[in-house]
Amino acid sequence: MKKYCLCLFWILFTLPLLVAGQARIQLDNPAAIQRSEEVISIPWKTILSAYPDIDTAYFAVIHTASKKQVPYQLEYNGHPTVQNLLLQVSMEAKSRLELQIKKAKPLSFPVKTYCRYVPERKDDFAWENDRIAFRAYGKALENTVEDAYGLDVWVKRTRELVLDNRYQKGDYHNDHGDGMDYYHVGFSLGAGNIAPYLEDSIWYSHNYRNWKILDNGPLRSTFQLEFDTWNVGSKKVKAVKTFSIDAGAQLHKVESAYFFDEHQALPVVVGIVKRAQPGVSWLNEQEGLAGYWEPKDSLNGTTGVGCVFLQPVKNMMSRNGQLLTMLEAKSGVPVVYYRGAAWDKAGRFTSADEWFKHLRQYQQQLKYPIRVTVH
């Protein structure tokens, strides 16, 4: 009789789910930190195993307690079929969140990430989310007075996307209420670019030659920049860099793959350019954290730049006007790190201590990801 009751309970509990066609997602935050607007990734094959007849064009993700829809994105990562389901959630420390996937018309959520090739501005490639923006320089900029090696920062104090509007106006060096470009890159690695390092020298490549967009919002934009072969000492080296920016985050992921003939590892450095005036530098080699709070600009405020590393760091140093983090690259194996920036006029971080604390917390989020159970 007891077994019969248990079986009946199971049938009554699961039958509505099977009939309605839905799946449940359980999220657990294992870390003692609050997670705000974090984008998480769930393999699509995991979703299919629980909900095999899901219609990719007609489903919603529902917060079980509030009954509100949760923003999501189908990530393709350059493939013809869906690879991952991306969700944006906020969670308290050591908390649990219950979601449902069900057949329903999804709401239209704001697009929060964006990237594009900018041929009208000498082959720039620019990307942004709802907090910060960046750009890399292309071939057309070489051999001009504007040429630069590193990665640029466009500071923002709006949650809106601004790239197209700024390029259209052509006046992005002045703040019209939403931010500006006052960051100076020059012949440096700028805000967290990466390059080979041999004989106490950085071996810069030319600017990128080819680009490919793998996904473009609303919650994550991912693209690749390809660099022609160049000489690094006696080596011929080629590079492909993949950037992935998530909504709500000050930092984003970089995967830099180098290709060369030798089996020996290639030393590389990730750099942050320093200014002539005193700023606040932070190199934490043991934890894999590098930060810089620039000197205050009397008109434009202060920019903070930072990098977070999960793989072992060989060395950190301040040399020739740059904060350098040394790593090792094997041919064809991407070096993965996270880079980003913040502006005090945006109001989220207004001091070096606040910015460096955020870098450490961001690393904790990476080390202790949200645990996902789908059933």
Strand order in the sheet with the most strands: 14-15-16-17-24-21-20-19
Oligomer: single chain
Major sheet description: 8 strands, antiparallel
- Spell the H/E element sequence: HEEHEEEEEEEEHEEEEEEEEEEEEEEHE
- Kindly, what is the distance between the CA atoms of the first and last residues, rounded to a whole number of angstroms? 28 Å
Give me the Rg, rounded: 23 Å
Indicate the proportion of strand residues: 35-45%
Number of strands: 25
Number of domains: 2
What is the correct CATH architecture of the largest domain?
Answer: Distorted Sandwich
Provide an overview of this structure.
The protein is mainly beta and 375 residues long. The chain contains four helices and 25 strands. The strands form five sheets. The chain has an eight-stranded antiparallel sheet, with helices on one face. Strand 12 (191-198) and strand 13 form a beta hairpin. The radius of gyration is 23 Å and the shape is globular.
